[in-house]
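Incident log, structure service

09:12 report received: a user says their structure output differs between two submissions of the same chain.
09:20 pulled the input from the user's history:
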Amino acid sequence: MAKGGNLYVCQACGGAHPKWSGRCDSCGAWNTLVEEIAADGAPRPTARGPKRRLALAPLDGPVQGPERRPTGIGELDRVTGGGLVAGSALLIAGDPGIGKSTLLLQAAASLAQTAAVVYISGEEAIDQLRLRAGRLGLRTAPVQLAATAAVDDIAATLDAPQPPQVVIVDSVQTLFTGDLDSAPGTVAQVRASAQVLIRLAKRHGFVLLLVGHVTKEGMIAGPKVLEHMVDTVLYFEGERGHPFRIVRAVKNRFGPTDEIGVFEMTDAGLREVANPSALFLAEREHDVSGSAVFAGMEGSRPVLVEIQALIAPTGFATPRRAVVGWDAARLAMLLAVLEARCGMSFATADVFLNVAGGFRVAEPAADLAVAAAVASAALARPLPAETVVFGEIGLSGEVRAVTRADARLKEAAKLGFAGAIVPSRRAPGAPAGLRLSEISHVGDLLALLRQTADEGGGRRAERRPRHG
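09:34 re-ran on a clean worker, output below:
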């Protein structure tokens, strides 16, 4: 038994064990158990004391909404549900160099105009923070800075009669507490450090923003319980080769979890993108086969993105299926549907699929747009000009209706699109000036492509592949 009631905690999964062993019984990892010293005064399940009855409240009672503090950055407020809630803890995670510190420094400068803001960095010195603020033009913002990784010192500073109203800690994986012997970034240190700061935020009512690192698999480094401890989890996404950055909420106790905020990385920092559709379609080529514009939904916001497909003869025994920005398994399913229900063949062809602009699409409403791009590339026939596509495809080839069809069509009409290929069971109310092509089977899509090519005089800008 561990002395003094201490436990041995696995640094891979967070499982607790009463004694040390070479292998963790929870996850099977070797040499990952580290002794964790129990904090003095911590509540124990076996502790005996006076018991009190809980005051129960009815479900049907008055409700008071949480008090929110707008950040001054519209896209960040959209993701958080309208602003930051007092006493809440937010975790913002993303790849190294994606712009997490830049975003939070800009938010801190904006919040400091109406609130007391403290920015604590465990990775950079104060001079480095000032240099970044100078590049962003924020040197005059009344933000208080500190550079330390000792969570005990941070807690002593924040546990004051007049604590700040917003606290930013960059990052939680660099913090350590003297109660534990393990190194910073381990499961025990991350959990204990976050618990101390979150408890302070709840007691004093200030907003706590924690920066989190991610692993090479894209998951937040540290214990999974860290995501359960905080109120909101935001992922900061983006591709190195693209200036676009997307803040996506995966957990939010005070707002929706399907909203996104879109930013553009510039020399002067992150700039809000009010109309993401126009940005993602800015460099789109017209009248080219293998290209389809998908009208998608991200929360309450319609977003139009270009989906590109390329079909090429394979030089391998097994054809390649390369996908960027979409689900590879769903592409394999759609190719099987096109082969079984429409007579197309991809057995001797490599299929490449890309969502332009570094955007990631997850909803099944993109099935019809992907099928349109693939069929257009295989037949070397462009889609009708200025046309958006959306719809879900079943295994029998039927095209199913999707939600929020009206919002998708309104966004397409606003951006100047003249047509839309939609499921036949779509919601009524198409905007004026938008020509609709309603289809019920994926085979109707191929017939529409052939009809468009015949009406256009048989355009063959590219050599048609032998398959299809």
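09:41 both user submissions now match this output. Likely a transient worker issue. Closing.
09:42 reviewer note: The longest helix spans residues 187-204. Residues 70-274 form a domain with the Rossmann fold fold (CATH 3.40.50.300).
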